């Protein structure tokens, strides 16, 4: 645990927590004293994260939840509040990638799949997270957007659309609740060493490395540290921001 834990007595929720950035963020929150709720689609997939948190001495609640389903999200948030009594920090990280496809070849079902998880899922989580934060008098939300939210990506129209829209939603929500002690921000990862990146590149990670001006992939822990900063008191004057942690990829 950190010598100066920033989240002692706080409750954090992380979606997409089974692996990658979400897992790293959950572990980081716990290391800094938070009680942590971790969500992902599969309870089996979450087991590794939950076990790691428990072994580190953290208090954890693992919930299987498809964030694109309103009933599951509402039930998950109710369980978090029932268990921990409040929600101070929400990191909406759950997302899916697309296969590189020119726009005119994108199947309607594939378009809906990407938008349902990345955009609708984030909206549904925010809806219930913010409602709880209003009841308790404040909180912080961070959404995982992408460098693809501020630039075009050949073959990635559906993914880029979901992330551009997420940034607009984040900015609007930040204004909605700026005087209610609720901050809402985005983190924009670049190419990060995660299972999603493995799938997106079909295992040819060098393709992703070649796109990075710094000449390497980011690590999930580097993204997690930015998220924790935004959620901490050190980021208290930051809302509606989209902070790139991408090695210069979006420049």
From TrEMBL:
Residues 10-203 form the Ketoreductase domain. InterPro entries: KR_dom, NAD(P)-bd_dom_sf, Sc_DH/Rdtase_CS, SDR_fam. CDD domains: SDR_c. The keyword Oxidoreductase applies. The keyword Nucleotide-binding does not apply. Keywords: NAD, Oxidoreductase. GO terms for molecular function: oxidoreductase activity. It holds the Pfam family adh_short_C2. SMART domains: PKS_KR. SUPFAM superfamilies: NAD(P)-binding Rossmann-fold domains (SSF51735). Belongs to the short-chain dehydrogenases/reductases (SDR) family. This is NAD(P)-dependent dehydrogenase (Short-subunit alcohol dehydrogenase family). It comes from Aureimonas pseudogalii.
